[in-house]
């Protein structure tokens, strides 16, 4: 009979990292969220081999204080919350202090940053979770995070990465979703030194549509709808596709890209009629949302999911009616 033993810290660190970080796409999501939390207006993402050999995310946000750099890569170290009460009304994407620590544990990580209030920047290099270098350097205001050799020390995970093309596709989909949800930010995605996607950062209403127009196949017009069931607000974009296609759904809840079963259920309840591409933006008061139920923050729980379901169903119903009317008007008399 084997005795119970506590896992060695480097083994438990890798297991925990695996809950947060499973692919280049999940790293890019965490890094974009950090840049948004830092108040960045410009976010540049660059990949090599779909992020398997290198991911760089660069922003013009507030930066990290030189002395805080080693803390940034420690698990459960965060500047975003400080006590249990804060968990009830989280206004930032991050709060678990796990992303950089997890990324550091399974890659070679390099952070260059210059905080707004400091005259000089800092460089931190970490391999497999160990800090190897921390020194002052000249750099730009903002933060540049570089992740190399993902899962070099975690072969079981590395095996599950897709081809470079497959991983690039997954990262593109994350970046595009954020670009749609945050039309006022400037996003650039590069792969092997080629720009594959960029947005201009525009605050006009139309931008959602402009961006979706670029990324969704264009043979069908995009429908737009809104409901305001105080305090729940839902905005949706829908591109109906040919019958027989499924519902392809992206949901943002209070700015977070999540897997949400409530909106999905509302759309699915309309069956084939609602098939196609959906982009749904839900806004609820922060205290009506529990974001702390999943290590990668990929799921949220609504306090009042019944209300969300009702609001979403109403919205989908209106949009389906609208599209029927639209399609029943002949384009040319
Ligand atoms: P969390 O976002 O949950 O706080 P992370 O591990 O993602 O945890 O980041 C740890 C800390 O490092 C953050 O709380 C923040 O203070 C700092 N940080 C990370 N990325 C950036 C960035 N791009 N700009 C400024 N500060 C950052
Ligand atoms: Mg974070």
From TrEMBL:
Role, per record: This protein is involved in the repair of mismatches in DNA. It is required for dam-dependent methyl-directed DNA mismatch repair. May act as a 'molecular matchmaker', a protein that promotes the formation of a stable complex between two or more DNA-binding proteins in an ATP-dependent manner without itself being part of a final effector complex.
Record flagged with keyword Transcription: no
Domain DNA mismatch repair protein S5 residue range list: 208-321
Gene Ontology cellular component list: mismatch repair complex
Protein name: DNA mismatch repair protein MutL
Family of the protein in this entry: Belongs to the DNA mismatch repair MutL/HexB family.
A GO biological-process term: mismatch repair
Domain of life: Bacteria
Keyword DNA repair: yes
Keywords (A to Z) from UniProt: DNA damage, DNA repair
UniProt source species: Thermovirga lienii (strain ATCC BAA-1197 / DSM 17291 / Cas60314)
A GO molecular-function annotation: ATP-dependent DNA damage sensor activity
